Each structure stands twice: as structure tokens, then as C-alpha cells.
Amino acid sequence: MSIAALSRMVKFEHSLFALPFAASAVVLVAADARLDPLRLVLVAVAVVAARTAAMAMNRLADRAFDAENPRTRARELVTGAVSPLSAWALLGAGAAAFVAAAWAIAPLCGALALPVLAVLLGYSYAKRFTWAVHLWLGVAQALGPIGVAIALTGRAPPAALVLGVGVGAWVAGFDVLYSLQDMEFDRGARLHSIPARFGVAGALLWARLLHAVAALAIAAAGLLAGRGAGWLAGSVLMVAVLGAEHLYAAPGGQLRKERIGAAFFSFNAFASVAFAACALADLVLRARAP
Fold it and tell me: Rounded to two decimals, what is the model's pTM?
């Protein structure tokens, strides 16, 4: 086993989906926030640690299913590249780092850490009993921007709550698209998902509606916080990228399964990084304005 195998197991590079919106949440509350370097580092550690623990839990929970699914048989826990003991150790380390970082930020954050972990880790079992598993993931991801706001200001202002809704809807939407790859397997294994419950057409509609909510909420969060042209530009860019993602994955409403992987990572990673860059540019421009 190697560090590289552990990194592949939890798809460490997918932190690109989480950290940019954590940075955007910083921009959103910057006027009322404590932005000392140590606090910002602790926030970043908490975000990455929580995501790592959640991914390790997901791989452990799904190990038996992954071994049966042709798409996932090459995953590290199935092939033996990572042992269950190592995955549990990574899960424990990620959870401990998250809780420790939260307590180091503030007692309130520390008190909220375990309930947040319960939501994050519980997602891995949701597909066993509810087709709303993607919405559960959305709620888990919505806690990120809200948690950043609490960590930096001691409260969750309306703008942060709305941004949380936007991020949660964005993640839930692309998770619905991604799970279309496993629709038939999920039905055969009696696992629950929006594609398994509503079929291809229904899942595509769910994904579009969730991404419409995401675009509106992210733009509204900027308005509530009094952000400027940079945030607006990022919101417009987000709408364009989400639209392109749907056109690429399902041109004319016809699903192209072979394109889902690229749509999942490339489009969404670009959307989150580009939006964060626009949000940070907005912060800089506001700071330089007379």
C-alpha cells in the first residue's frame, strides 16, 4: 500500500469541489470576519479532513457493492491496493483532524463538529433506504459554507445560509448525473437513487432543477452580502458552465454515458475554481475601491 493509493481511494483531487467554495464563503463574510492566517489554515484543514473522512467511509461502506459493479471493480479497496485497516485508519485520522481543527477555531465549532460528521458519514449508507441520497449529500455539502461562516464570524448570516443552499444543490445535481452510470446496477442490487427511482428522463430533470436552484441561490447569496461585479461575473460563469455540462452529458436530452465522467470532474472542477477566482477578484476590487 502507498500514500498514492490512499489518495486515489479518496480522490484527493476532488477537494477542488470543496475548497473553492470554502474560499467563496470567506469572501462572502469577509467584512465581518476574523481573517488571521492561522484561522484560515485551520478552516482549510477542517474542510479537507472532513472530506477525506467522508470519502473513506463511503469506500468502506460500498466495498461489497463496488466488487460487484463493473464500473467500480478497480477501486483500491476491491483490488487490495488499500487494506480495510488502512482505510479505517485514514477515516479515523480525517475525523480526528476535523474535530481538532474545529475545536482550535472556536468552542462553538468544536461542539458542532460531531453532528456535522454524523451527517457526512451517514451519507454513505443513505442509498440503502432512500432515493433522496443525493439530497442528503447536498445537505452535507451545504454545511461547508455555513461552517466557514461560523468559524470566521461566530454566526451563520443569511447570505451564508443561501450560499450553502446553492452549493448543496450544485453538488446534489452533479451527483444525480454521475449516478446515472449505475442506474441498472442500483436497481439490481436494490440500492436507491434518483435514476433508479425516476429513470433517465426523470434524473436529468432533477439534475437540471437542482442546478437551476444552485445558480439562483449562489447569485442571491452575493446580493444579500452586498458583493459586486466579480461575484456577479462568477454567477454568470457558473450558469454557463452548468448549462454546458448538461448539453455535453445529454445533448438534446439523450444521455451519453461515456461522457458523464468528464462532465462530472472537468466541468464541475472548472466551475468551482473559476467562481472562486471571480469571488476573490471581487474582494480585491472592493478593497482597492476609493
Answer: 0.92
